[in-house]
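Consider a concrete sample entry:
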Amino acid sequence: MRGPVDGTDMEILSYLALYRPDEFETYKDRVLNYMGVFYKKGVKRNSLKEVIFGQYRKYIWDTYDKYYTPVQADIVKNISNANCFSFSAPTSTGKSFVFRNLIEKGVNDTVVVVPSRALINEYYLRLCELMPDKSINILTFIDKINTARARRNIFVVTPERCRDLFKQKEDFNVDLFLFDEAQLSDEESTRGLFYDSIVRRCYKAYPEAKFVFAHPFINNPEAQLVKNHLVDKVAAARLYEHKNVGQMYLCVDDNNVFYHFGIDKTIMGTRKMQCSFDPVERCIKDGGSVLFYVSKSKIYNKGFLNEYGRYIDLCEEIDEDIINYYINELKSFTGGDTIANKDHYSQMISLLKRGIVTHHGSLPLQSRSIMEQYTRDGFCKLCFATSTLEQGINMPFDIVVLDRFEASKPLEMKNLIGRAGRSSEDVKFDYGYVIVSESNMSKFREILKTPNVLDDVSVLDKHEEERSDYSDFKDAILNDAFSDQYNLTNNDLEKFSVEESDDIIKRIMDAFYENGRLITFEEINNDRSEIYYTFDRLYRLYLGRDLSDGEGNVLHTAVKIMLWRIYGNTFKKICWYRYSYVSRSSDRKELERFGRKTDELEAKFITGYDDLPNKGLRAYSIFEKGTKAKDVDYDRIVYDTYDYIDKLIGFKLSDIFYAAFYLYYKKTNDERALSLAKYVKYGTDNERYIWMIRYGMTFEDIEALDEHIESINEREIVFKQSINGVPNDKKQSIIRYL
């Protein structure tokens, strides 16, 4: 008895549940028993075989104290028996539920590595709900804090944040590493290189720990063990194909007519059959939710609004007070507003009134968290998203529409398709719809029928035909020449030991300080050219080459944003500064004051985020030439600013500049260098604020909470009585320390 492993079986059952509901009801309990969905309470057992399933369910409860499915129980068993376990399972398997239970039962420290910051928040919220015990640190960064109260740590981090583990490895007793969505290690890019480097560094730092790798739709999960040389331990791998949710597949033609089609033509036939209703329209009217997978450009240029206007028009404004809470939270953080044709108008925020969500990789983490909670609370009717939802975020939908079809990325497509259909605890057969364009029907079939395999040779171990900007990083990982303290290679650190580096750093400090005093923002704002020039020289020294015009523009913009942060500006204020410049707010107000029109005033040039280094990068503006100043999209400014802070400053530049300043301080004892190192790393050199940041507070939190904190250090936070008067929504970052 194999259970629900055949996609066509689930497809047929979905059609029966939709089109023959009365007949299906007769067999429903038998189907649910054979599926092993033991988390559904109230399923009847009317035959000997079904009674046996009931006994199996009881055995799983007695053994694990949870109503696991057979697949979930087998995952737990294999994790228990092996030092390293790698497995693959469909999206609806419920592996996150298993992981959360394993974490809860742990004794020592646990590290959960997830592919994106978007997934961090989901894990964090669920773990906080599951584990209210405040003697357990649940952190989305790696740091030694709250030591007077915490008996163990649970770190939920991206691969990039995980690097902070190694500089403090003696402080933690990690006995479990969980790598979720581990298929990202197969990326033929620097991300894949970095991912495998983290796995190997974790194994080197904690060789006695247990390692678990989870993937969706991978046919050879054992490759994860082979590529990272973990097969010498007690290792196991398993492919699970069982599904908890059925799916039906439809295509839509240019006239918006829908047709059912089957995946396996030998069973389901070669013909498509017209659907008598518009599934998207029906879903909206029935209170369901629809995910549209679209390109990022279609979100940025608002193309989705016109293309799917007929569905957007069906979404009436939600008349509930809680919606205003979400909107006000986003306004407070981003500085956006919902008044059309006014400065700072945010369409992203305004659409929430109607249950419409946009979701992509440049959405600020705090905004993303609010959006995802909004969706989990059941308010999302339509979600227009890029592949960020592919990265394991638990946001299921009734329908997935593949507006963007990337046949070259079959695994991403399968993962997105897995979002179609909600797995519920109701005693019913759960199913969803997947919709593609008619022209992509054949390609879609091939994607679902074609196995996905991981490369069992890591990018770290592959021979390079020519040297790249990341060759030194690769060599350092392989040859144990990487500094855990600075997150740079030993070769990189050597670059800051030369006389030229000392000269550059001294010039930077002289530009920032006067008689030992950090000059004011107004003073530094009058002449930033020296600072741009010296940071440019320092980065060129690090790279060992000149910068292209595009690289120089991006670096100067990043330095400008760093300066704003150094002088205490919040994310909202930085967005306002950038928007005011490009939209020429002061020029427009001045013209309006004299009764002159501003319609033809063009937006200024503003450099958009791009990754560094990138030799081929050319100078370009976020907005096309000819864009009117009044038409500048505030949301684009928000997204771009977040990319600079998170992806470039936070992930790359802060490590480089921190190392340069701190090494200079160690050499010279010049306190100005230590101060700048702290500014680069934390955005402040105030020790109290640094501790608040290390406890997970943002600058926005610091503004709201500073006056209510008596003292803060590595051991604990001591609060004043006044903290009790702070609204709960303002205390979310410190709720576990109260």
